[in-house]
């Protein structure tokens, strides 16, 4: 893992942190911190549906009528509608209940299942928001550690179509939490 301030390379995949609005990203897919109904909501979910238009919700409805609600930790893929990103990967992070209800494993699963889906669809770039740290109340420093460790572990395990993963963090505090988790991970792995 090669380390700069807010960017590392893991197994030839660039992993970078940016502060900004995920709906404006040009990656092949952006990830939505959805809820199990897939019917849209507040926060980043609402912003993605507003910017992407009704085609995304149409496809979400079809998915739910086929397979039911999306379980926490799982992911599905739809069109990106009017977004610059061609696809949206919808995943459901855990609601924070104090940390002993499987929250870290469920959060890790949300990241892992999203990455798997991107690789299965042969995508080369992917952007994540900070899943679960808004309305779902997951403490941001802990969530950042889970997010960074899960993504770097996934990328270390083998080569996939994915050449770039970005975390697009909405505010300075969230960005700082991810920057610190990334520095820690780079130090721990001892790679350069
Ligand atoms: P959750 O329900 O999973 O907690 P939220 O949407 O409430 O999801 O919050 C997750 C994170 O997404 C928060 O850090 C929030 O500030 C951030 N967020 C909200 N809008 C956007 C956006 N347009 N782009 C990127 N991140 C966003």
Architecture overview:
The chain has 192 residues and is an alpha/beta fold. The protein has one domain (4-189): Leucine Aminopeptidase, subunit E, domain 1 (3-Layer(aba) Sandwich). 41% of the residues lie in helices and 20% in strands. It has five helices and eight strands; from the N terminus they run ββββααββαβαβα. It has helices spanning 43-52, 54-67, 103-120, 140-157, 172-189, and strands at 2-3, 7-10, 13-19, 29-33, 75-79, 87-91, 125-128, 164-169. An eight-stranded mixed β-sheet has the order 1-2-3-8-7-4-6-5, sandwiched between helices. α3 (103-120) packs across α4. The longest helix is centred in the middle third of the chain and has 18 residues, at 103-120. It is globular. The N and C termini lie close together (5 Å). 47% of the residues are buried. Bound molecules: adenosine-5'-diphosphate.
The helix content is 40-55%
What is the CATH class?
Alpha Beta
Fraction in beta strands: 15-25%
DSSP, total strands: 8
- CATH level 3 topology: Leucine Aminopeptidase, subunit E, domain 1
Give the count of helical stretches. 5
| Uncertain regions spanning at least 5 consecutive residues | none
User: Could you give me the name of the CATH homologous superfamily?
Assistant: Leucine Aminopeptidase, subunit E, domain 1
């Amino acid at each position: 893992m090669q380390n700069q301030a807010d960017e590392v390379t893991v197994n030839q995949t660039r992993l970078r942190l940016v502060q900004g609005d995920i709906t404006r990203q040009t990656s092949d897919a952006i990830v939505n911190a959805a809820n199990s109904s897939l019917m849209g909501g507040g926060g980043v979910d609402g912003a993605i549906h507003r910017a992407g238009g009704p085609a995304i919700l149409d496809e979400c409805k079809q998915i739910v009528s086929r397979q039911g609600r999306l379980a926490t930790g799982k992911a599905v893929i739809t069109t990106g509608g009017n977004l610059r990103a061609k696809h949206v990967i919808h995943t459901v992070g855990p609601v924070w209940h104090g940390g002993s209800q499987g929250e870290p494993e469920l959060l890790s699963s949300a990241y892992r299942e999203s990455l798997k889906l991107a690789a299965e669809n042969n995508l080369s770039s992917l952007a994540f928001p900070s899943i679960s740290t808004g309305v779902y109340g997951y403490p941001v420093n802990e969530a950042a550690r889970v997010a960074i460790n899960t993504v770097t572990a996934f990328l270390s395990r083998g080569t996939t179509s994915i050449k770039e993963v970005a975390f697009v963090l909405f505010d300075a505090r969230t960005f700082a939490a991810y920057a610190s988790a990334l520095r820690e991970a780079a130090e721990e792995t001892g790679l350069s």
